[in-house]
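User: Predict Outer membrane beta-barrel protein's structure from this.
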Amino acid sequence: MKKFLTLLLGFTFTFIQAQERSQASEVKIMGKVVEASNGRSLEYSTIVVLNPEGKVITGGIADIDGNYSILVAPGTYDVKFEFIGFKTKTLKNQNILKDTTLPTVKLEIDSESLDEVVVTAKTTEVQIRLDKKVYNIGKDLTTGGATVGDALGNVPSVTVDADGAIALRGNGNVRILINGRPSAIAGFGSTDALQSLPADAIERVEVITSPSARYDAEGTAGILNIILKREKTLGFNGSVQTFVRYPWGAGVTGNVNLRTEKFNIFNTTSYNRRTSPGQAFFRNQFFSNQVVNPTVIENRDFDRSDIGFNTNIGAEYFINDKSSITGSFFISNGKDDDETINNTDEFDPNDDLAFNRIRTEYETEDDNNYQFSLNYINRFNDSGHQLTADLQYGVDDQEETALIDELNTFPSEEILPSELIRTIEDGNEFLAQVDYVYPIGENAQFEAGYRGNFETTTTDFLVTEQATAGGEFITNEDLTNIFTYKEDINALYTQYGNKFGKFSFLAGLRFEHTRLAGTVEGDGNNDVVIDFDNSYPGLFPTLNLNYEINDSENFTFGYNRRINRPRGRSVNPFPSRSSEANIFQGNPSLNPAFANAFDLGYLKRWGKTLTFTTSVYYQYETDAFERIQEDTGEETPNGIPIIRTIPINLSTNERIGFEAGLLYNPLKWLQINGSFNFFQFNTKGAFNGIDYGTKNTSYFSRLSAKVDFTKDFQFQTNAIYRGPRNNAQTETKSILFLNMALSKDVLKGNGTIALNVRDVFNSRKRISLTEAETFRSDSEFQFRVRTINASFVYRFNQKKERQKGSRDDNDGGGDDDF
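Assistant:
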């Protein structure tokens, strides 16, 4: 493999060389590249030969012993040496008139100071910036063989619920961006796609709790910006990772990059198969003046089988030293085969079994995402004056077929008519964005830009039913429909930042005009008008302040106004069909919610041993979303009351919280990373004459410890605790679960074998109690059982300890610091 890669890169440079080299006879440049600290060979380091004007003439890479030999025409050259994570070194004005052996080049590890505060621990790398925290999670052993959704659960301030729902500081309205932009990779606002994208594709995660005006105003909790891997160092390098797991799963991910002075080609491709069993339990007790007040118990078993393929390929062409254009194409294909068995027991008022029914849903889903992105950047100078333009078009096609069979087993066995449901969802999204940055003097900066985001999702919902068991399927005209949801957003923003001594600020204003529209075709209930077309213009000011007491201590303050827009499923008025008695139904009358948020933060470092971060935050939200459960007044054919879950706008939601993080490295072989988040929210509002106001206090914490038994043998454990919480109707119990991992480097550091167990004690279950006027519901839900993963990663032309996060501003990063 190494010889092949060497030949491939050598061919690339030979092609360039053939066009630039004169017809004069050739001579050799020879030498060796080593590490300055220990003299070890830097195999596959990159050597670039330039003429006195700085133009690339030819180049090559060192062999496994660090030696290189490059043919050039006689002349005077600059010879540049590069390797991942090391400082570049250039030998100037080398007179190469005959075969020449240059002095051994010693490269030093790149430990340059960053503009932001950088805190490094072997479980994570944290960068504290003016408006966000950046977590490089690539060193987390517990993410081997995991998905992006799993990896986000290891990021401080972020929680991932038992069913995959993502929350930031306990608030589920978090905006997910990929490389700084809305993306089909994130499923157009849904997090489902993140469950198929491998965690190995992530370079870093930006937790933006006080977004500046450059970012979307969407997401009252803030923004999670996922930056995908893309190498910036010259040469050919990459990695391949494979995994197997129990319950059965296996996959492979390849990440490769080829970069020269003129172009950069990058690709991440993965293929995986997974089975994910889960279970749920519901106990519903009904209270009314009727003679019969049944108790209904449902036991559900989920058997999910998923096949996923993802590839992200792109190329960056460097037009000149100041400008470049990048095009990339993302494809995601998924196929799910799921079986849900719902075993229902109904008991009479004497707790005697009245009947038993087994409802089985066989569901297949084909999910295809395609996205094309084009980026142009022009750096007018080296001081940050630049213009960037982005175009992005994405398509998300899903086709889902569900066959629902029902069987009564008590008091007599009877096969019931079946349901066949077909759902086709077609979504497309177009994004256009322009950003302009103009530095003013040494410390000030002005910025302005535009973003247009236009999204349409059409859901074609066909319900067919048998009149008698085994009979012909007939369309149910009352439920069959086509629902089209449009979201158009036009935004303009401007912001200005400056630094005066130890004080810096970034102030901005963003204007967004939102249009939300929904239309229904084919609805049998023609007496109900559910079409809507609403516009919501709004101004969204932002302010971020920073005061540096000294190099190791600072205060930050942030204010921003945010919006929470309802997604398609939340406004789709047609109920789910997985259960007859427990359904979810969207609300077409749902309006956006608006929030004002404040954040006061503090950071203190004690050398390289201890770092402490903390913040206090407050948020006031109007028209806040809340999911409630209510008795619909309707019954199943067997007389069971139908309970629905529906999202509504409540009047206000007031939230105040405190969070703290600690990075502690007491010994060279021990690293401890802990975080704690405490919050209280007070909700006020009523719906259909029922007061849903409530006050709730909750908290969650995370503790990670990593032990280096030897330089290449490591152990890590992550413990995550979520405290009990409640709203006006539902109390949810606490959850404690543990992840553990072992890692061993092999093949001289080029390979790593890892074993990790997620949810060691199989305790990640959501247990809740809901009480309303006419019913009481106990439930327990486990989205996925304990998993055991074994993985192997092989790196070529890079070593584990040399991998570093990129600082390229063109991959969705965000704002510079002042």
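Confidence is low (pLDDT under 50) at residues 1-24, 111-124, 799-818.
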